[in-house]
Write a structure and sequence with these properties.
Elements (H helix, E strand, L loop, with lengths): L1 H11 L9 H17 L1 H10 L9 H5 L7 H7 L2 H13 L4 E3 L2 E3 L2 H11 L5 H14 L8 H21 L9 H13 L3 H19 L4 H16 L3 H17 L1
Antiparallel strand pairs: 1-2
Helix pairs in contact: 2-3, 3-5, 3-6, 8-9, 8-10, 9-10, 10-11, 11-12, 12-13
């Protein structure tokens, strides 16, 4: 269902201007300028939302990886009260919708963001979005992991959508973030995407830490599990044996 919705979103984003929505687009542009004048950080947060899904936007999603955030985002996420103040500013200008426990973007507003507001791809904002989604992923060994990761699914699909349409500088993305997105893809059944992310993480770990580092071997083991789930038993065995030999040396 999510995959289909993303395809439809991509197909229809350019046609939205055919509505009598030129007036709406002008109104939203004016509203965002007013937000920027009132709270510049809220306006920047709104642009960041264009690299996430348009539903299930909640405080802890942005607060989870705030330790490495730029100053403007650190300020917004330092407290829930400050975050809600920024979101209230956006809400008062009809740019977001408030739901019980989270915020969302109306599909038409979201299409405007995708098609016009962020027409030029911003690698820094994409990296931030990837970081926050990755740091929110819950391991499948933890209680209620499915509930949290299901909430993240739409955001992970937005990242996938960007990958398919843009040239991503993966060297600027933290390797652990790449690994975590791969794990999320694996849990959600996107095995092809999971393999690609795991391979990116593996190359990064090998280059940075060597072939026998724990993070490298964990990624090798995850690839083994992934191949087993796909029925690729020869590849799975190869990864398992490599991980085992590496652990024995450590």
């Amino acid at each position: 269902m999510y995959e289909q919705s993303w395809d439809e979103l991509a197909e229809n984003s350019d046609s939205l201007i055919e509505y009598d929505d030129r007036t709406l687009y002008s109104t939203w542009n004016l509203s965002l300028k007013q937000v920027a004048a009132q709270d510049p950080q809220a306006a920047e947060l709104f642009r960041l939302m264009g690299y996430l899904g348009n539903v299930e936007l909640w405080y802890k999603l942005f607060q989870k990886g705030a330790g490495s955030a730029p100053d403007w985002l650190w300020d917004i996420t330092q407290s829930k009260a400050r975050f809600n103040k920024a979101m209230a500013t956006l809400y008062s200008h009809s740019l977001i919708e408030a739901m019980p426990g989270y915020y969302s973007l109306h599909t038409c507003v979201y299409n405007w963001i995708l098609g016009y507001l962020i027409g030029e791809f911003d690698m820094a904002l994409f990296g931030l979005a990837t970081h926050y989604v990755a740091r929110s992923v819950v391991w499948d060994s933890m209680a209620e992991y499915w509930v949290v990761n299901s909430r993240l699914n739409h955001h992970a699909l937005r990242i996938k959508h960007c990958q398919e349409r843009k040239v991503i500088d993966w060297n600027s993305i933290d390797m652990e973030d790449i690994y975590r997105i791969g794990h999320s893809d694996s849990m959600m059944g996107r095995l092809k995407e999971a393999e690609a992310m795991y391979m990116r993480a593996l190359k990064g770990y090998e280059k940075a830490w060597g072939t026998e580092h724990k993070s490298t071997l964990d990624t090798v083991n995850s690839l083994g599990i992934l191949y087993k789930d796909q029925g690729k038993m020869a590849k799975a065995e190869e990864m398992y044996m490599r991980a085992l030999k590496g652990i024995e040396k450590v």
